[in-house]
TrEMBL record, chains A, B, C:
This protein's UniProt keywords: Amino-acid biosynthesis, Arginine biosynthesis, Transferase
Record: residues binding N(2)-succinyl-L-ornithine: 142, 180, 241, 281
Aspartate/ornithine carbamoyltransferase Asp/Orn-binding domain mapped to chain residues: 202-314
PANTHER family membership: ORNITHINE CARBAMOYLTRANSFERASE, MITOCHONDRIAL, ORNITHINE TRANSCARBAMYLASE, MITOCHONDRIAL
Protein name listed in UniProt: N-succinylornithine carbamoyltransferase
Catalysed reactions, semicolon-separated: N(2)-succinyl-L-ornithine + carbamoyl phosphate = N(2)-succinyl-L-citrulline + phosphate + H(+)
Enzyme kind, highest EC tier: transferase
Originating species: Sediminibacterium roseum
Pathway info: Amino-acid biosynthesis; L-arginine biosynthesis
Record-linked InterPro entries: ArgF'-like, Asp/Orn_carbamoyltranf_P-bd, Asp/Orn_carbamoylTrfase, Asp/Orn_carbamoylTrfase_sf, Asp_carbamoyltransf_Asp/Orn-bd
Amino acid sequence: MKQFISVNDVNDINALAAKALAYKANPLVDARLGANKRIGLLFLNPSLRTRLSTQIAAKNLGMEAIVFNVDKEGWALEFEEGAIMSGNTVEHIKDAGPILGQYFDILCIRTFPSLKNREDDYSEMFINQFIKYAGVPVVSLESATLHPLQSLTDIVTIKEQLLATPLNKKPKIVLTWAPHIKPLPQCVANSFAQWVNAWSEAEFVITHPQDYELAEQFTKGATITHDQDAALKDADFVYVKNWSTYSDYGKVYENDPGWMLTEEKLKATNNARVMHCLPVRRNVELSDEVLDSPHSLVTKQAGNRVWAAQAVLSELLKA
Amino acid sequence: MKQFISVNDVNDINALAAKALAYKANPLVDARLGANKRIGLLFLNPSLRTRLSTQIAAKNLGMEAIVFNVDKEGWALEFEEGAIMSGNTVEHIKDAGPILGQYFDILCIRTFPSLKNREDDYSEMFINQFIKYAGVPVVSLESATLHPLQSLTDIVTIKEQLLATPLNKKPKIVLTWAPHIKPLPQCVANSFAQWVNAWSEAEFVITHPQDYELAEQFTKGATITHDQDAALKDADFVYVKNWSTYSDYGKVYENDPGWMLTEEKLKATNNARVMHCLPVRRNVELSDEVLDSPHSLVTKQAGNRVWAAQAVLSELLKA
Amino acid sequence: MKQFISVNDVNDINALAAKALAYKANPLVDARLGANKRIGLLFLNPSLRTRLSTQIAAKNLGMEAIVFNVDKEGWALEFEEGAIMSGNTVEHIKDAGPILGQYFDILCIRTFPSLKNREDDYSEMFINQFIKYAGVPVVSLESATLHPLQSLTDIVTIKEQLLATPLNKKPKIVLTWAPHIKPLPQCVANSFAQWVNAWSEAEFVITHPQDYELAEQFTKGATITHDQDAALKDADFVYVKNWSTYSDYGKVYENDPGWMLTEEKLKATNNARVMHCLPVRRNVELSDEVLDSPHSLVTKQAGNRVWAAQAVLSELLKA
């Protein structure tokens, strides 16, 4: 593995997920693999799970991890080629990137979309410029359109469940839109769709209100419906997530609380386990009764973030 | 020890203080005790001494310490059960707590009172919810009403002085209110009162202007007077601290500079040593002449924060 | 070495630069030198290179490095003797300094000038008060008027070039003012001038528009001219930097883009290599064509920050 930006950087999803579960069973088995290696965790946006889990994963591999909140501890970076920097940006990625690449063996970066201009966000200029200039392997801690460490965790969590309680058929996985009060990125949903499609070991259904379609480049292969009830029928896993509109980009049209997942709705499923990347707006996206029920995998899922990150860093260190 | 939230978590104050002084004499004697253990230091409010001393204490025990400024690096947490999260809070402690408990072996948290609603603050909902959901030992880095790491340090500092210069009687300890420009929590004063009362090896007097009483649950056992001069007479230790009003909660009624401790006032004492938790507003709470005199223990006291924290973490690791 | 605040703390510049280059060749040769020593990196202002390079240098020497953003994680410090602290400052350096000195073996601090009052800034009260009260060796991570870790790096980078491509004469080094959109400190330019003059192995020319003179205490010994073209003639190294006015203090009078260094201007030089401390405003201070050309040393220069810091910390540890 040369970098970890999307599922396209992964040769064998099942092998990578198995590696994550092996680290879960034995966190310190490779405690010397990253000795004298340094990883930089750069945040242009806030983070809880992603930061802590990646930091812990790095330490488990013996790496020195340094967190740098670029937005708060540093200054605004410029990503546009040829910019005349007479505005608010203080340093160009063309200068910062190669220097960070000298300081660190692996660089991880989180950078959110603006949600103002779809073409800009979907060009992934920020992370692409970062990769172009860093000169060392780059790991996405969530970019404008994708969140691959989350998605690998999601596959790991599903596989872990299937190993404990095998099904005699392909699992039915449903990604359902949920209400929220603010316009959110499409990253987690895009990325989950991309990974489940690439994994191809599930029946995969996406359900959302009209006007909330995701980018076809990520969803292609999934069944897409606006009928949540039909989608949930016989589901084995329900992944709940809000995202903002894609066509008329970055808007919140609809906040129909009817889309919130409830225990009542779960009755149509095959005793489905419920997933969410967190943070979750309780009683807006998901009801307390679901989150506090045995159906919920969200705590296990978040715990698995460590092992997914550790598997990825391990692959990069071995490359 | 299962947690460290108040003096009620301590079996033997003298033994714990002795342990702290033993670490002061030999900081690295237990440098392997916390190997492969991870401690999370979570701040919902700013900190200097508490953060650095706890971080250093953890490292002295071989633990990996990770600082996370929840308010600045993360987002606002919700603590209310059943909340419909359509407001400013982004993540519920019911979700964040168990995840942090998976990531860390010990969790430390600082959370200040609102000073708006006394019942809410004194219910200690934030730290109690945190304890309820974390599932691992929790250490208070100051909560809405108490600051036990500070108070243990205070006892350690007093004992250290008494060991160096024994008295032929119980020491007289006076906690005196001091002026300040802003409404401050009652935590340090409450907690000091709670610990000195539980320790029960001193004559303990609290003095403050009318309307500045503290919660009786913590002060019970102490002599309380509004006459500062009478209180200071023959004192061996004078603990200086401002706090805001308790009954008409969180107000500053009075800023009589006459309550500022001066060298002149110290003449009535038994050559008393002067303590303060810091930060201190010089020439408002305490005069330069006192702080810069040999009477002042404040630097030694702050230095002892490391050893108090190390004793507590050591007990938690051994439990 | 007892501290590192300016070139005056250095006995032998060449020996220190050689030590830095030796660490570049073998970063971990002294990996145990700082075992069980702790270094505090205190920032009153933001930083990227200085923070990361010093943190990495400390780790390479086996020290435990703790970063503390005083302005963001803590509170405002008071530096004025005798202050009545009824304003915005929360803690006096007289109290914070000795405590930090108890917590750390070496203290590093960054504190910018106000650019409002020249006498205040040039008195270097902040860092001097810090040194006075810390009681342990202090390293400047940039102070009101100087930036010695940058300047040592600059000398290291020049020497490295001269070792690779020796000249048959003293190198001609030109420090040239560049346009910027905001008033910047004079630190980097002052400090570079102070070091090059102390090093005394170069022909040293400073060029800037009228009214942009630097403090004579640092420039004395250099040739100073307002004619940039004349200055650049036959230059071997061109150091580009903006600074604000000194006499009518802290102003931006002039933004003549004619002062921006371009490839065209470099033609008059002896194929000069171009330096800048970064961050650089591209196409304001320096054109893309220069920064992206083989003339530019800025990435190498920034990389050398690690080795310069490591040489300094090593000297302090050995003292």
